[in-house]
Amino acid sequence: MRDLTQAWYSGRTSHWRDWPARRLVELKERAGTSISVIIPARNEERTVAGVVTAISQALMTRIGLVDELVVMDSDSTDRTAAVAAEAGATVHAVRDVAPSHGAYPGKGEALWKSLLVTKGDLLVFIDADLTSWGPHFITGLLGPLLTTEQVRLVKGFYTRVKTESDGSTSTEGGRVTELVARPLINLWWPELAGVVQPLAGEWAARRSLMESLSIPVGYGVELATLMDTVARHGLGAVAQVDLGSRAHRHQANHDLALMAAELLMVAERRKPGAREPEIPRIRQFVREDRQVRAVIRSVPCHERPPASSVIERPGGSL
User: Which residue segments constitute the domains of the chain, with CATH numbers given?
Assistant: First the structure.
């Protein structure tokens, strides 16, 4: 397995500089392929406009690589939706998309609902809280999809800027990646151990793949997509691209613990012979007025069915 993983890493890992934007435009036009960039967002009015504007100007107006730029607003209580629309994105309120199917909070829900309102053959997912990045994230992620038919999923990885207390940079993933996802993968799914940052929020996929997968509504969407892609199509269906560096807003430890529990749920469901677990809860402790109080939070565990099962084609409605 180690030799297989190393061979995959050597053959399916590239750098964003390997994929010049003009070349990708030629490949896209030759293939008649359409491209959508999707930005899930919740209360990101401070950063979402910068992300939208950079993509719109560099990859839509200037060279026409991206055909559709969509922000999926997930119950924001600030001006995220208005700011994104002013910057040039098409904005959909997640809760208003296919209301007959209900709505859940969470990133995965936003991505699943995006499959119902976007049209691109290739989908690029970008987080809304980026502060140190560039449009080359999109071109880098698209390169393997536009050049290798076998590739269905492309994961980004990067140096995380100023993640350490002394301001130093690191090629490590975030805390949940290093303390939960990476040990989990190495122990139980070693064929995925060559993926540098399995939980990276910047990734791309073929629509045909995404519509065929069940999607966890919460934070586990990235891990589930990776595991399910390899289970169905083999390791050769995945590629990864070095995107350089990235900075974004960090989350509190209690929220990260909830994310970690979601990942464990996703992994447990994908073990051979796994049974459907009861709705899990996590007990955490906070100190208030010199006393410790228990807080019990439900762990998001619902998974949406493959989008292909709820989309009527051709020309139908939900």
Answer: 2-309 (3.90.550.10)
